[in-house]
Amino acid sequence: MGDVRGFRLTDRAPERYERYAAPVMAPFVAALLDAVALGPGAVLLDVACGTGFVARAAAGRTAGTGARIVGVDLVPGMLETAAARAAAEGVVIEWQEAEAGDLPYAGDTFDSVVCQQGVQFFPDRPAAVAEAARVVRPGGRVAVTAWAPMDRSPLFAAQQRAFEEFGGPGITDWYAADFSCGAAELTALLRDAGLTDVTAHEVIADVALPPLAAFVPGFLTVTPWGQALVEARPDNLDRAATRITELLAPWTTGDGSAQVEFVSYLVTGVRQS
């Protein structure tokens, strides 16, 4: 396992994360919500909600049905950005600062619990999944996603090459943690938490990235390993962005945008009575 210092952003990075991560996350948000069969009046918990991609999408799907959508995250800046975006979009979501391994909710509270690209960063993965299983109601579903190996997604592989060339082992090991929780481990975690009907599959999405000249440096600065790269040497941002853009040339179109494949695991399980 790589360095698992977690996914924490500084300064105004949560706001930029909302902007630059959105095109990458969108298809996986949809797949995650499809997996829990979100219906009218649903009560859903989004664990490690970040800036609220999943929670806002859930609120949009259930608008006007009396649904209750809750997002929890350990990083106050993420929650502040999430709340601001939800208010701007006119959706009502409850936000709570909390650790995934110690959720402040009674058992059997939620119809569904979801976690988008968060499990790989939890210091105690079994405890976090056990908490999800505890707070979901009997018959409810838990669904989690985690990235497939980085070589399955060209942008992630290109970033790793740039980190190796300009960042050194500390940053590359930290970055590798983002890909440290495979389908087999996710499946075992859900089963060990007492969930049944556990299924795992890959979600593959071709994502249209905006012109890379602006997108790549922006995307680098909304990850903690990208921030560490720049802190080590300010001109690393330009050097790494140039290298990543070069490596993505096979997927780049005439206007500088790119059509890039991303692959994630999606694992679901059902809480029995």
Features of the shown structure:
seven-stranded mixed β-sheet, 273 residues, 43% helix, transferase, single chain, Rossmann fold, SAM-dependent_MTases_sf, methyltransferase
Structural account:
By secondary structure, the chain is of the alpha/beta class. The protein has a single domain (13-270), classed as Vaccinia Virus protein VP39 (Rossmann fold). It has ten helices and seven strands. The chain has helices at residues 13-35, 53-61, 76-89, 125-135, 154-166, 169-176, 183-192, 212-220, 224-232, 236-247, and strands spanning 43-47, 68-73, 94-97, 110-116, 136-147, 196-209, 258-270. It has a seven-stranded mixed sheet with strand order 3-2-1-4-5-7-6, sandwiched between helices. Helix 5 packs across helix 10 (236-247) and helix 6 (169-176) runs antiparallel to helix 9 (224-232). Residues 45-143 form the Methyltransferase type domain. This is Methyltransferase domain-containing protein. Keywords: Methyltransferase, Transferase.
